[in-house]
Amino acid sequence: MTDVEFVIAGYGVILGGIAAYVALLLRRLRIAREALDRAAGSPPPDAPR
Amino acid sequence: MKSRVLGFVALLAVIAAAIFGLFVVPADLHQGDAQRVMYVHVGSAWLGELSFGLAALAGLGYLWRRDLRFDALAHSAVEVGVLFTAFAIWGGMMWGRPVWGVFWQWEDPRLATTALLLALGIGYLLLRRLSDDPTRRASRAAVVGLIAALDIPIIHFSVIWWRGLHQGPTFIDPAKSLKAAVPMLFVAALLFMLTAFTLTWAWLLIRRYQLARLETRIEEEVRLSRINAARAAATAPGGAVEEPAG
């Protein structure tokens, strides 16, 4: 590998990794907000009818 | 809203710092283009250690006040810290192979102690999965977070205490940082990337903390709904009603 390829690998993984973590974090936040809305607004699934 | 502005500023800063480090600053006379990896490597290493330091302080805060908000902060800091420590190791490997001739050397104390910090961070995150009890989990995690933070000064002083491949400290040594041996353009690129990464880290930490607080509330809601369901089942006709004494 040449120096430039090592630079591309270094920046690619680090900046790409940050971008991937941002996307994952925003997705987890959206899912958690939806789950909280469901948990707070609806009766539990095992509640007696 | 403020965190959105921070996120936008951080994004612009990282793009600008990457362009500056990759295309504006010239290649190093001795290390060539490989030296450009230093900008992201040092930024990642600094934030990895800052995260674990913050996690230890938050862990102490939890052990002192028993407030789960401290635990949420510690958890968030460790997750982000694991990410940046892994990036620091990766960046170091991508710089080390062309400059040192090896990706990794276990005999180097700086490398080995950084790998230990990563292992402790992963262990912290795995330990949290072992218990559903928020207070027990937070106490155990705080202790592990404090143990992990003991590694931070060892990482820093390892290049002074022991011999290895890794060069000595640059930024903490005032003689070197005030009178840098490299052109100021290189120092500017490094400081620019450090600032951009620190802004990104702050945004990630805020968002991860928000997620940790949401997860705590979901846990509480689920626990409450289970208790209510059990009570309703016990008082319902034909349910398990406790016989009154006497």
Summarize the structure in words.
- The complex is a heterodimer of chains A (49) and B (246).
- Chain A is mainly alpha-helical and 49 residues long.
- In chain A, 80% of the residues lie in helices and 0% in strands.
- Chain A has one domain.
- Chain A is rod-shaped, with a radius of gyration of 21 Å.
- The relative contact order of chain A is 0.07.
- The model of chain A has no long low-confidence stretch (mean pLDDT 86).
- Chain B has helices at 2-24, 37-65, 68-99, 109-128, 134-149, 151-161, 174-178, 184-235.
- Chain B has one domain (2-23, 32-235).
- Chain B has eight helices and no strands.
- The longest helix of chain B is centred in the last third of the chain and has 52 residues, at 184-235.
- Classes of the chains: A mainly alpha (49), B mainly alpha (246).
- The interface between A and B is medium-sized, with 30 and 40 residues.
Number of strands of chain B: 0
Query: How many distinct domains of chain B?
Result: 1
Largest sheet of chain B: none
- Rounded to the nearest angstrom, the distance between the terminal CA atoms of chain A is 67 Å
Structural class of chain A: mainly alpha
Overall mean pLDDT score of chain A?
86
The total number of structural domains of chain A is 1
First-residue to last-residue Cα separation of chain B: 62 Å
Q: Would you list the SSEs of chain A in sequence order as H and E?
A: H
Low-confidence spans of chain A: none
Which outline of chain A best applies?
A: rod-shaped
Sequence stretches where pLDDT stays below 50 over 5 or more residues of chain B: none
Greatest chain-chain interface?
A-B, 30 and 40 residues
**What fraction strand of chain A?**
under 5%
- What structural category arises from helix and sheet content of chain B? mainly alpha
Q: Give the helix tally of chain B.
A: 8
Number of strands of chain A: 0
Average pLDDT across residues of chain B?
90
Kindly provide the radius of gyration of chain A, computed on alpha-carbon positions and rounded to a whole number of angstroms.
Answer: 21 Å
Number of helices of chain A: 1
